[in-house]
Amino acid sequence: MEEKPVSLMKSSLTYGIYLGIVSILLSVVIYVLGYSFEKWVAYAAYPVIIAGVVLAQLSYRKTLGGEMTYGQAFGVGVMTVIFSSVLSSVYTYLLYAVIDPSLIDQLRLATEQQIVEQGKVPEEQLDAVVNMMTKFQKPAIMAVLGIFGGALIGLVISLITAIFTKKNPSDEVPA
After folding, report:
1. CB neighbour list of residue 30: distance below 8 Å, 6 or more residues apart
2. What are the distances in angstroms from CA 149 to CA 8, 51, 68, 81, 139?
3. At what angle do helices 70-94 and 41-63 cross, to 10 degrees?
């Protein structure tokens, strides 16, 4: 009896949950250490996401018998990050709405400080710009934007990683 390969959706969901849990744990550590609004934190997640996508793609390729097209690699990568983003966005919503609602005010102050430091906004327009930014700093909006942002990041990362993880049948070197 021949083994049936795992579906793309199941593989993506499994690795999306793994990646989401790792992302949430990383966020918790950053929150506990008090680095939530540091600039470098935004870049700390990229290596984790890249590793999660590559692992998902390699695992899926293994279930397919060692051969996987670029499209399959791309699909599993994007779906993995989308599932991870949904999980991370639920955590983000809970963090800002339930666990520590004071983070919204801290985020507003950090945003205002960053705008002032950049010096691109005239003093008389500062309040208007900060008010505009705070409209998007609500837990529900942040969660939705997190899903869309994650999908976009997953798209870009998967476009690149699929080049290296695909293995077409014609890629075999004749003996």
Report:
1. 36, 41, 44
2. 22, 18, 27, 10, 15
3. 140
Assess contact for 126 and 115: CB atoms under 8 A: yes
Question: Distance between CA 10 and CA 146 in Å, rounded?
Answer: 22
**Using CA atoms, how far apart are residues 96 and 85, in angstroms rounded to an integer?**
16
Amino acid at 48: V
The amino acid at residue 158 is S
pTM: 0.87
- Cα 14 to Cα 17: distance, rounded to the nearest angstrom: 5
Mean pLDDT by 10 residues, the chain (175 residues): 72 96 95 88 91 96 92 96 97 94 89 80 79 86 94 97 88 56
Residue of 41, 16, 15 whose CA lies nearest to 28: 41
Q: How much is the pLDDT for 3?
A: 56
